[in-house]
User: What shape does this take?
Amino acid sequence: MSPAPAPGRLHHLLQIEGLGRELLFQLLDTAESFLPVTQRAVKKVPLLRGKTVVNLFFEPSTRTRMTFELAAERLSADVFSLDVAHSSTKKGETLLDTLRNLEAMQMDLLVVRHPLSGAAAFFAAHAAPHVRVLNAGDGRHAHPTQALLDLFTIRRHRPDLGELRVAILGDVLHSRVARSQIAALRLAGVREIRVGGPRTLLPPALESLGVQVFDCVEQALADVDVIITLRLQQERMQGGHLPSTAEYFRRFGLTEQRLRRASPEAIVMHPGPINRGVEIASEVADGERSVILEQVSNGVAVRMAVMALALGAEPAPAEA
Amino acid sequence: MSPAPAPGRLHHLLQIEGLGRELLFQLLDTAESFLPVTQRAVKKVPLLRGKTVVNLFFEPSTRTRMTFELAAERLSADVFSLDVAHSSTKKGETLLDTLRNLEAMQMDLLVVRHPLSGAAAFFAAHAAPHVRVLNAGDGRHAHPTQALLDLFTIRRHRPDLGELRVAILGDVLHSRVARSQIAALRLAGVREIRVGGPRTLLPPALESLGVQVFDCVEQALADVDVIITLRLQQERMQGGHLPSTAEYFRRFGLTEQRLRRASPEAIVMHPGPINRGVEIASEVADGERSVILEQVSNGVAVRMAVMALALGAEPAPAEA
Amino acid sequence: MSPAPAPGRLHHLLQIEGLGRELLFQLLDTAESFLPVTQRAVKKVPLLRGKTVVNLFFEPSTRTRMTFELAAERLSADVFSLDVAHSSTKKGETLLDTLRNLEAMQMDLLVVRHPLSGAAAFFAAHAAPHVRVLNAGDGRHAHPTQALLDLFTIRRHRPDLGELRVAILGDVLHSRVARSQIAALRLAGVREIRVGGPRTLLPPALESLGVQVFDCVEQALADVDVIITLRLQQERMQGGHLPSTAEYFRRFGLTEQRLRRASPEAIVMHPGPINRGVEIASEVADGERSVILEQVSNGVAVRMAVMALALGAEPAPAEA
Assistant: This one.
């Protein structure tokens, strides 16, 4: 079992809730220091040289897995990505046995994605003292590095976080991304968090999270500084939650016209991959207010920061 | 969009056509300088350290993908190979969104293989200015690094390129390899290029490329210095192009007997993987005139040269 | 063809039989010297820098493949793992052509797992002089690195090898692991080797190997110092060899109660992945006498030693 971490130091990263404001900003500041590394000619620092990072993905994800791999490589760690669909877990091995075996192979950092909420916490609860666990998405629960990179991206455009109105649009009900974003925005002290989308896709008790709920997108967007559109999981259609993607776009999609409701300098975000013409119009996704690709770039720097701090490396990015 | 490259410098490598003779020979000379690197004890130079190379393969290919990976590793780059069949393109992401995302992750070099002709050019046309695109095979259009390694192999055996007669045998109609080989051989100024195979597998307007066409293999082989056999795609059988592989071998396969038609020092080539007893007899493939495995070795050095020049590295292979 | 290796030096590692006692202990001693490397902050030495290791796995195996990859990475080699189910062997390429092509790519070390007995020996028989082949499991024949890591683990707990009684329990008939273990234990000179399990899973001529055979597990366990439980392949059930896993556990599974038959300091081993409640009770697998996870850790050091010695590297593990 892991001992309780020293207060104010990053140990595992399982969710945003409970991180503490100081640590949140330390993560963002460290990511800021890594951003130039990802942009120079030699995109590498020797911080995690000789460390072993394992990506254990029980759900497929090219993008998230690749940014974690890139982050680890750019910190000079050795990375192993396990596609669990083809691994010995199919031979009936338990999650705990998988963890114990990876630990026995001297793994230092486990990045885990799993369809069940709580899977990352399970690994963290049972991890050896020197092992760190990062949640790369667990069920509907949390996706903390996504929320961190979103907040990082917002802060780079609008350092006046306390003044901001942020709208999150779409399938909040099923979204671990939205859950973590709301927690991060609250912890960072933004002025107002709004959520907008079809009633069937909004959880009942959202207001208790300090969030304003709108089922009219136009109202949700009024004068906001940041718009976060969520990916619509196509499989929701089959569950009877929604009529059709065309209908969804017509009523809830972020169009140029709807965007005019927001503040003139509002930025538009999306965790990707985007469904063009479903949750967002192509003109908006590719438009001048879109920072969607910046989010991807920032994601590498943010994941480098999380990995470095979790493993206790001194964040002094000299050239490798 | 990419700006027009400086004349005479390698930018993207999409096809042989348009490369220019000077650049063609610069590529071969650079490959020559990398060949010793691949043969010494420490097979590594630090030229592309901290660069990110992405292999984006929309068609399966162990051999080509692996030689690109090896080339990148031996230049000390970080390499990521994406098996696109399992990636988010299945979630409906467009090619352009895939490109933009990889760029946002600070990719430097994209190696792309795709079943559609023009796919590599599409990526190149939309790539960010600092990104380079290498075509690892697009539809029936081109496979330029294969043609370069073939020419490199020929030149190592016969530096008197202007004196050579070269025969390309087999399924020229469907072969991006043949198309690029013909372009490379012409640019290099070989004396004579011949093509031989079943009429149904020879494109109609081949003569316009400056190529002599034979449907009698024996005639095509008379006194040639270089024989390039092409892989017969088994799926051609179903299209009614060919009766059977046995019949193909009987009429068009490169046997010891047919080989005697060529010059006594003729070399035998094949892009691999070979179908023994279909386009080539085992005795010939394994015989003393075969340079098929040299082609594989040279392929790594040639791909190192292409990567290094495309990324503007100074080709001075000191030990890593 | 490979020349005969110098006596007493590791060339290929295909099986334990024929290794010689001196080389066996040199391997164990070298592994001992690598063990601290896998446990320090920077888990890397530069011994195999610029070498190319290829894992060619014709059978799926997450655990074995990963420990070979880790071992190679920690020796600073470049590693390529080929999932052969998706490679050009499906296009009809022969094993020999696969080998020749990997050699042409300047591979230094081939780690091969294959469902057919003798596959590794085939590769070794045809490998180029500078290439080394390691058997990572071939059919029912051998799994020598597993046997080495088992012996290494035993020796760390009980250096008095000549005094030890060892029991191997389970499906010996189908187990390449058991075959190699028996050879290693004999070569190391342990006092007594016993084998226990259902008659249908014990090969007929076991006694000729210098092994005592028991179909009563309780008798096999009496006063032993080391217990090795084997994984029960679930597919054996269908072959009529066994009634059910529950029945197997009841009659042959290693329980706390049965464990009491052994010496009070006996250690319990398993090559993994374990089937809890089939060949071993969870309390025993997780109990204080279990060294199952140590085996996994030791496996990395042992494979580093095998790779380093096979490639003739001086085993002086300075920091990379």
In short: The first helix of chain C runs from residue 21 to 34.
